[in-house]
## 1
Amino acid sequence: MGFMDQLKEQFSFSELTGLYQSYKSGELDVAAILNDEFMQKYTDFDNMAAFMTKLGIQDKNQFIDFMKDRTNRQHADQVVKEHSQFDSLIEMAKKALEK
């Protein structure tokens, strides 16, 4: 299942449209969504930087491109599953977006 298929499965069309528009306009700030408070409450990580380090991402601006690759998504899902109460990064992101 591709990244867009996972998104479609987890998010409503209006949510997807909003996410896409925010991403295109540069308003989707992954670090703000997965902020320190969220990461400390729901994961074993103190912050987004620690999470990205575990994923092998050097810069938060690489996060979306990283997630386009299937192998990277599988790795991210495994890290999320091992270090949080979520089964996938998509599930974690959806919870973060509720905040």
## 2
Amino acid sequence: MTAAAPILPENRQTPQSGQSPEKGQSRLAERAKKLGALNRAGALMGCAKLAREMGQSDRTMRAYAACEIALPDAVLIGAAGALEREAQAMIDHAAKLRALAAQPRGDGK
């Protein structure tokens, strides 16, 4: 998964045999939502860092992006956890910055 390439399904798949076209479109829309959400997570955190934090290889992430392999819900949950850890690190650092700014300075300012 690269930062420049959005993760969206590029190939429209036809419904499986015995499946209505509406059901197939619904499944495609759901897949697109999941891929879009994973793409947004990659944009927020950086694709390579997200993959690393999730314990996924770049190759696997690209396979998800290309719809070559199914995108399990566990991957989305892993991405959510990685984002939460990153967000907590940012919140912790923001608190350090505020504490440093609140410290009295020796020059009277």
## 3
Amino acid sequence: MGLANLLIGGVFVAIIRTRPTLKKIANEREANLLTERAKEMDGMRRAIAKLEAERASDRHRINNLSQCLDALLLMIEMDPSKAAAAAAKIKAMRATQMEAEAVEKATIHAAEITTAKEPTA
């Protein structure tokens, strides 16, 4: 019985002595997990911002195409004999729009590169 009490007492002492160390390890692990989650959330926020910018650019492009198609149809309905001239005007309009779209895409890409180079906290 005395040996059993001694073993039980030794186990309790060991548990009590290692408790602060185990608590420190648990706290460090939790801090590391929080840091990792913060980095993941930052990456997700950047990805969402990029996708929203691309979506806005795509929506703008679709609106431009719709506008050109509507203008072409209206010009042809007004005077079918001038369809070739109308097509030339629409091609010029599309060329201008495509230049603006290229600038818009380059801006999105440059913003993506800039944010990728920024250090995260």
## 4
Amino acid sequence: MIKEFVSGLGIVTAAFIVAVGLSACSSDDATADNSSAVTKKGVGDAVNFTVVTAGGSTTRAFSTLDNYWTMNDLMAVREGSTVYQYKAASSSTSSGSRVSIVPNTDDAYTWSPEVTQRTFSAWYPYSSTPPSSVAGVTDQRSDNLGRSENWGTMTNTQYNNLDLLYAPDVAVSYKQPVDLVFYHQMCRIVVTVNSTGTKGSKPVTSVTFGKNNIAAGGTLTPGYTGAEGSTASWSITQNTSVQMRLVNIIAVDNPTTIRQYTYECIVPPQSLAASEVLFQITTTASDNTTTTTEYKPGDVYQDAPDFRAGYQYNFMLTLSRAGLISISTVSVNNWATENVNGLTATVPDAGY
């Protein structure tokens, strides 16, 4: 399945591109080269930068709290063809709060009286060239819960770095502060599974997003996301599956009969046909026998899902003792706020 996505605007035909790493690209937000205004640290007054992530309370894929920057997070700040490495000077004190950033090397942006207008952009995680591609990561499992089971090996930092953020051009006058607003270029899929099997006999041991129909990476022109008129666009190929990251296990109601498992993954924007597999849920019985149950978009949506950049999609599923799956709720959450047509869940009969 080969598609190109223009975030917030829909789907158009595109060519298959396999992208690994980050490489230079040109985009509409690239500005004239103002590198003559760039001076070394300690020469002239420093340009003051602050950063924040667009959206509501759930706006960054960090392991502790969303929309929180962590001290020393590294990001790239660009002016013209010049790119310098900056870092968060402190951690966020509250969700959505702005954080100052400072140079991480001796190179820094400073003010020059002869240049009165400046334009800056930025991206996270740091790379020396603007983001034009994202390597596909199909195994996003992690051992972050500290349990004895083998949930995966991806570290929190590696997972956080999947969450590509981009701050489009900001034009400022002489000695004005530069307030950079980052936008998600990816989307996040979250599924919570209530397993009603007897405790210990039917635990959920893995959840996979898709079945050879998912794009884990691709190429892009970064820009605004999470709103009508978004400018970010992607070219992807949907031919893989993504093993999701376990983020929580809790007992629900009676802990001897119900366990709740929450998994998530970060992927480029994309859509699936109603006939395709949305999730594969694997359980393991006490005799180590595994069972994988597939769930398709046609069972969840009135229309096939359209996963857009800048949004989080939340699914609540229930897996019965007989291995049947029913849908409880579906919602689109605050990587930004949007009412997406076609995201109405179809609730099965009570006996399903």
